[in-house]
Queue: 4 jobs
Job 1
Amino acid sequence: MSVKAGDERRRQILDHARGTGHIGVTELADRLAVASETVRRDLKVLEDHGLIRRTHGGAYPVESAGFESSMDRRAGSLVAEKHRIAEAAVAALGDAETVFVDEGYTPQLIAERLAVVERPLTVVTSSLAAAGSLAANSRHTTILLGGRVRGRTMGIVDHWATSMLTGLVIDLAVLGANGLSREHGLTTPDPAVAAVKQTAARVSRRRMFVGVHTKFGVASFCRFAEIADFELLVTDSGLPAYEAHRYSVMGPQVVRV
């Protein structure tokens, strides 16, 4: 088979992965009418180029400067794990009175739980969805950053948002990422999103990462923080214990739920 045909097949595999969120080797072999071993070789090439991450029997797409999943897609993936992460994150608030809540589906779940916390909180957020959940609690003060709204995530970005954050001192920042790795720290595809996250991390006394295990070992386009900047990484039990230990030696506690 020609190199061109192989490139076209891998393009189809990548498009399918980005459309569905996860792909299986057997399904791809049937769809493309090729051997499973051919699919595995294609997945290896795509992984070597940082476009996918292989799993047992399949793969999922890595978010990059050219691709970012929608909130609808995130809301349908590893949902039980994200709910457990949200519960653990709220349990780890400690004595924080002011909290930054990031954009993203898992932070949105955290905001829904913060909305029913009985003690008063001041919550700053870059997420329209999170602000809507929090504003219903009259005990809380909810501050929504101003700026441009990203249609894909309903997150607020650009210099208006970072300017508001610069004038604050926040007890705890609850931050997501599209990827985090020991080599490249915490990353996200969009420079404007990275600027908001970076500023929130800088003005906060404590920082907590929240995200599913598929984020680990992944590097996206823009770095906004280092692993050592965080006191806590909250993820699900899909992250192997030995991998959790490799991150914990860099400084943060790793909680697997």
Note: The mean pLDDT is 92.
Job 2
Amino acid sequence: MLLMNGPIKQGGQGSDDWDLANQARTDPRSLDLLFRRHRDFVYRAIWAQVGHKAVAEDLTQEVFIRVATGRRKLFRRAAFRTWLYRVAANLVRDHRRKHRWELDDSGLEGQVGESSQQNLMDILKAIDRLARRQREVVLLRILEGMSTEETADLLGISQGSVKTHLHRGLEHLKTELS
């Protein structure tokens, strides 16, 4: 994966994620620190949508490459994690559009037992068939354990919309998985 050598010094107020993202274009250590802080979150968000370990790893790295190679200075428009999630979600959407692939279970080998693997694949495929906004809300609320408020902020929608999408998404999953 995308790791640099050498110790990372965590600065004081100047080591804010937005500042690090801007510095990442010229300072590999800043990118490394951002990667260490956020890689698990980005990987889980992507893996939950693609269901394939190798693809999720590649796309996770691509998210951070985009952070480092962006041409414009980044401004604090939202929480950094919110912006990073949007970069990941857009990358997944573009990748799916380009490759038109479906979930497969090759990324689950050795991670869970055979019956658990089939159950997990059934759940992931059902989640994959949800409407985009329902899928995002279900993944953030259930898999990431985010609060309604955090999810609303991250997606730029109201808390009421989060609750509605979660309810509808879970109802759809219950119907499909029963």
Note: Residues 1-15, 107-113 have pLDDT under 50 and may be disordered.
Job 3
Amino acid sequence: MGVSVFPVQSEGEAAMGDDQPGEAIVSPGPACPLGLAWGERLQRRSQAIAALQLDQPRSIPAWDEAAQVAARFLGVPLAVVTVANGSAEQIHAAVGLSSLGVGNPLSQHRQLPLSSGLGVYILDSEQPLVVPDTAENPVLAQSELVGTYGIRAYCGVPLMTAQGICLGALAVMDVRPRRFSGQDLGFLAMAARWGMSEYERQSATARAVLAPPGPAGPVGLETIVDRVRLNLLTQLTQELRSPLTTVLGMSTMLSREIYGPLTPKQREYTDIVHRSSQTLMTLVDELIDLNPTEAERAELVPTAVDIEALGQQVVAALTPLAEKHVQTLTLTVEPGETHWILDQRVVKQILYHLMVSMMQGAGDNSTLRVHACRRGQGLALGLWLSNPWLGEGLPTKVVEILHASAAPFAPGKIPRPLLGLLLSQHLAQRHGGQIKVQGSGDSNRLEVLLPMLDAAATRPDASRDAEAGATR
């Protein structure tokens, strides 16, 4: 493709102003970090574009927001998000195209021949392209973007899918020369990652909502409504990541004092915002991972599960909630009984919802204890509360609900925070197990009994997946 340009000004140079062009480092030939031929990369890109329904130029809200934030933060008049589809660079989000002239072709047609723009160099190298002054580069000066529309400064980053496929670019432009700092480039890359991940999540949610019923046959209207409601709740949870990603990214930059030193009070507030954002992001990721519609849709998947690692992952996710109520979570595992063949997703949901329900029914300064051990050939999970004033045992409401669950009753009689008990009971039964109250009086505890699954169908490397998730 000819040339790759990667000039980035230093922080010292940034203080000199934006009117002087920086020097460019020019590479004479194309780069291919993936080691794939251009034709193969083109095929992978075409398949990804079709799967994400990006065949035609259309407005995408997440990308519109990414372009707007990038233009506003970097103080540039133009920003675009493009996808390279065939021989054209299609514009799916744009800010400031009208400033290039009323009725200009780029604004009307929302696309540009791939060979006429600068995004082709990003596709070729899959690296950022930063050009302080296009007029000083004889190759770039011949492009239509420069010759026809007068673009003098360009800063673009790859638009990468979760599978590492470069679809296009997020770029900011100016009609006068200007330099871009390393912080500018870093912010642009963060905006591109956020915009792409949000669109992929929204696309996945839309496919789930529109998916036809499974092979079990027709279902009732009430069941369909419940499925739609759950999918919508999942989508809303996923969309929480949008503002959280922005807040987390900005608080990170502020805490690193990229834009100047902070006073002690500003540092205190910034650290609070940063920690809170991290906690919220962890909880949102857990909620998405614990999507009940996914568990209902899939068959049981035998997995080599490290119950201690999985339990610690759930404890870590719920610790912020426990701290709000001055509660403590503890997990113990019987020595030598760490690895089991189970459905990892189902067991994680059981633990998560049971612990949340128990915490909701507990008072302040309570300790929720979880103990894993062997019962015959299966895994037993014991849960109970201890309180310095109330002793050990289960909340009365929890015991009543579990005893009444065998008989039909109106769902409105169950407090909303304790609905997780019923979901956990249903999931345990799907796994071939049960949940029961062990003991009586003030020393009772809740016990989950789960049989091991067929080891012959165990998914390879799943144990390492669980351990990696636990350290997330």
Note: The two ends are 40 Å apart (CA to CA).
Job 4
Amino acid sequence: MKWALGIMIALLPVWNAAAQAPSPPERSLFNRMLHPFGSAKKKVPKYQDVRLRGLLVEVQVPTEPIRLSEMRQLRVKTVLSNLSGYPVALDFPTSQRIDIQLLNPAGEVLTRWSENRAFTDEIGNLTINPREEIVYNETIATRELQPGRVYSVEVFFPKYPELRTRQKFMTAP
């Protein structure tokens, strides 16, 4: 009996950590048969603005460290997806839809994409149908970056501040 008590005491920290960790949602038998290697579902954030529910903003930058001597512009791909079952309409007061900024490790803005752009004062409307994606491929100057550091790129919709995402990347030494 003492050895069983010793094992239980030894496993107590592991058991506590497992009990506190959130468990993944239970999948049904039918779901496991259709998707045996897991689900590729993306988690949709809960926005305060009801009109934005179902939208997901993702940003993609190169995964390998960026060589500043070879690359003057960083490619930034932004994908706005409607994962809901109904269309979502977004209104814009100008021709600007997105804005991109480069942030240092402390979160301070180094470069802003919209600084070098001219936008017209024309009102625009963008309707995203269910399971549709809108892709924005842009570049931003890397002149403020230094080699061997970690930076973040942040993409957001100025009219809708909740539609915002960040991605870290590294510069090569």
Note: Confidence is low (pLDDT under 50) at residues 11-24.
